[in-house]
Amino acid sequence: MNDVRSNVVRDRIVRTAAALFYVDGLRGVGVNRIIEEAEVAKATFYRHFPSKEHLVLAYLDEMDRLWKIELRRAAGQETDTSADRLTAMFDALLWEGHPGEYRGAAFQKASAEAGAGSAVHSRIAEHRAGVLEWIRLMTRQAGAADPDGLAGTLALLMEGAQALGMPTPDHDAPRLAQAAARHLIQEALAAATPR
Q: Among 64, 99, 90, which Cα is nearest to 160's?
């Protein structure tokens, strides 16, 4: 029971921090504010997170988990055509972890604040590499002429559409990115088809 309670408290701290970090940024939110809003004792906070960096990493882990779930949900079933899945994944841009409160991509915002070579910077790079590898897998399954190039371009389009959500959301960006992606995917598949 003690482990369950401990996990509940830890999750509450992460959820509280996530809401604050997403709105005010990593540097704009201090540990004392998180402790106060999560309604935990300072000792409890530090038992779960020895430093703010540990908490930021937990936040990024949660954002990574949620973003990957949403990407896969938007892309559809693995039984669907890979080309259709590649286009559909852009529907995930409409979610971005915080419906109704969109202020840009959590990882892009964190990247702007992370010091080069820091654990946070490394975690952001790991997230981007994981997303790119997943897109690359689908471009290969779709039979694209240059699957690596197409994957990189689609990842760039997705990042660009997310960036247009900061600081004022551009509600057309997801659909424009999706239309551009559809065109690129069609070209890549046509180039792979023997004539």
A: 90
Alpha-carbon distances of 34 from 6, 12, 96, rounded to whole Å: 17, 10, 22
Block residue for tokens 């409890």: 44
Q: Is residue 153 part of a domain?
A: yes
Q: How far is CA 182 from the centre of its chain?
A: 21
Cβ atoms of 97 and 22 closer than 8 Å:
yes
The pLDDT value given to residue 121: 95
The parent domain of residue 173 ranges over 52-192
Mean pLDDT throughout 72-83?
84
- Mean per-residue pLDDT of the chain: 88
What would the mean pLDDT of 160-189 be, rounded to a whole number? Answer: 83
Domain count for the chain, please give it: 1
Q: Is residue 45 domain-resident?
A: no
